[in-house]
Design goal:
Strand content: 5-15%
Number of domains: 2
Radius of gyration: 19 Å
Number of strands: 3
Shape: elongated
Structural class: mainly alpha
């Protein structure tokens, strides 16, 4: 993300304890332990007494997982599939779909259903469209 140190006493390349990682990512420690059981890509270095040390690459992965689960609203299964798909072959960048109108018309016809990826992995353009629908729903509910 940024090159600024995450804590005043450590550089970006320093290993983090589970407490430090949890504080930086913004989730409790038990959530990080749970994510380790659900995301095989997340494997912090373990030392005596099962003390976990998160490498810089682990911290970046934790940020991605948190963003997918908390900000993007994906399920754990959806995040697993997205990470697995990106690990195998990243999807080529596609042009963004046309922007949705700012105010949805509640009296008009229902929009066509979004096509579902046959492989079970959410494609980048589908994710973008789903986020646009989510944002439209938020604005409609807050109005």
């Amino acid at each position: 993300m940024t090159d600024a140190p995450e804590s005043p006493a450590k550089s970006n390349q320093a290993f983090r304890t589970i407490g430090e990682a949890a504080e930086i990512i913004g989730v409790p420690q038990h959530v990080l332990r749970f994510w380790e059981t659900r995301f095989s890509q997340l494997q912090p270095l373990k030392r005596g007494g099962n003390r976990r040390y998160y490498r810089p690459a682990d911290m970046e992965l934790l940020r991605r997982i948190r963003t997918m689960l908390h900000d993007d609203g994906l399920t754990i299964r959806g995040a697993q599939q997205l990470l697995a798909g990106q690990a195998k072959s990243p999807a080529p960048a596609k042009a963004a779909p046309p922007a949705m109108p700012a105010t949805p018309s509640m009296s008009g016809p229902m929009p066509a259903a979004l096509p579902i990826a046959t492989s079970g992995i959410v494609a980048a353009d589908q994710l973008h469209r789903l986020r646009a629908v989510r944002d439209r729903l938020r604005s409609a509910l807050s109005a």
